[in-house]
Amino acid sequence: MKRVLALVFALAITTGALFFSGCGTVTTEDLQENAKVNIPDDKYNNYYQIWVGSFCDSDDDGIGDLQGIISQLDYLNDGDDTTDDDLGVTGLWLSPMMPSPSYHKYDVTDYYNIDEQFGTLDDFDELIKECDKRGLDVIIDLVPNHCSFQHPWFQKALKEAEQGNFDGYAKYFNIEKVEDDTIPNGYNVDPNDSSIVYESNFSDQMPEWNYDYEGTKDEFEKIAKFWIDRGVAGFRLDAVRYIYMDEADKSSDALKWFYNTCKEMKDDIYMVGEDWTGDMNEITTMYQSGIDSLFSFSMADSSGKFIADVVSGAIGDLTDGLLNYETKTKSVNENVINAYFLTNHDMSRAGDFLEEQYLEKMAAAVYLMTPGNTFTYYGEELGMETYDEGDDPAKRTAMIWDSDNLPNVTACGIDRVEDNTNGGGVKQQLADENSILNFYKQCFKIRNTCPGIARGTMSALPDSFNGGDGVGGYYLTYGDDTYLILHNLGDEEQTFEITEDVMSDYKIAGMLTAKDGEISAENNSLTMPSYSTVVLHSTK
Ligand code: CA
């Protein structure tokens, strides 16, 4: 027997209003304008990755800075649940800000300060305070694997080694004397003494810290305490797989030590590690450290499931891949919070591969409806593309606030600013209800009104489900709540039954149309246009 599906939304009930639809058609606006934000105070967030030097420049020196970020916080999250003109992210990942000779600042000379290009520690404290007001958790990029060639301790270490002393500062690093001209793999030569070599896997400007020495651990404990005391929610840990090159077990042990050390200082510390690998054995080994999150690189980038499967319409491949990833990682530690993203500062921008606005929106709907934490690279919500150069600086160019008035921000090392958006800057896209930016706002609104999406456990649809070509999805179960995420990645509109064994007594909690057409629901029949997403919700 078919039941009449009353289109009464969970959010409508919570606000005391009831919405019925006589013709069985509901609109996205109906749902989201009335949605009630519900963001528990835990480790789950919609993170936004800011490249500090390129985001917003407060003093017109061409370099983005901390005061610039503060001035734009209301765009990211204004802290007022009743307004809808902010993006709706709930956490920030700030790229490295500590003093460093490079523009990218992944080679640190002082782990206890802010680079003067970006501001001061007072500015940082102000940023944390302003983020706290808005419910934004801040994690900072911490580089535990290597420092700058110019770090004073490394300079002292080299000088001592040149004098034959390997028991002083040299112990913080992997510095050796070689008898012949053989340079070990991953090492570079001291420019002042060709018999002295030091481990530096990334570049001769980035000597590696030695974690076999307790003094190194003591130092990083102090560094962590310094920033935790200043109010960070946690750390994005750079290059964790290199802590012990090609030795995942030992790197995982070092991570475990660091995570537990920080947890003693701050019980709810959040940590996400960068381990750029598609090798699931390595990922599960690293998750044995107990770290909350590792970035899911196998899902990201142009060849990753989010972008590749959206472009090819391979919904089954996408959902199988996600289920497999969730199951394997959570078998190591049920508290794992996977970290899903499209691209980051080391990859060509998502806009390069997606190109069309509807594909950029659909990719957003796909990765922003996953469990765990999501990471959105600044400008992705504008469809920004990589500059023609294609090198690292070209992936880290100025945020476009107003495409009619381009900012003079060239801190990434490219001496011009282009409008590389797909539909204009923030100003233009806020004013266009069909913009990519407004679509991202809808996605975050769904995450912020349905806490069980981020926190849920993923499971597969029953074999009996048949949504037609291109339609598929998965369940997310969290306590008494079950969400059914359905995407149509096909070229055709599909109308299908939600049978009792798929879900009963559900309400529609979210609707996203990335292209044309309208989502509609009548009785237990659901119509999903090509490139659309529906979130159904049932409560036990
Ligand atoms: Ca500046």
Describe the structure.
The protein is of the alpha/beta class. The chain contains 17 helices and 19 strands. The strands form four sheets. An eight-stranded parallel beta sheet has the order 9-8-7-3-2-1-11-10. A hairpin with a 2-residue loop joins strand 5 and strand 6. The radius of gyration is 24 Å and the shape is globular. Calcium ion binds next to loops.
Short synopsis of the structure:
With 540 residues, the protein is an alpha/beta fold. It contains 17 helices and 19 strands.
How are the SSEs ordered, and which strands pair?
Elements: H1 10-14, H2 28-33, E1 46-50, H3 52-55, H4 66-71, H5 73-76, E2 91-94, H6 121-133, E3 137-142, H7 152-162, E4 175-177, E5 187-190, E6 193-199, H8 214-229, E7 234-237, H9 248-265, E8 270-273, H10 280-287, E9 293-294, H11 305-312, H12 315-332, E10 339-341, H13 350-354, H14 357-368, E11 373-377, H15 426-430, H16 436-449, H17 451-455, E12 457-460, E13 471-478, E14 481-488, E15 494-497, E16 506-513, E17 520-522, E18 525-528, E19 532-539
Parallel strand pairs: 1-2, 1-11, 2-3, 3-7, 7-8, 8-9, 10-11
Antiparallel strand pairs: 4-6, 5-6, 12-13, 13-14, 14-19, 15-18, 16-19, 17-18
Bound molecules: calcium ion (CA).
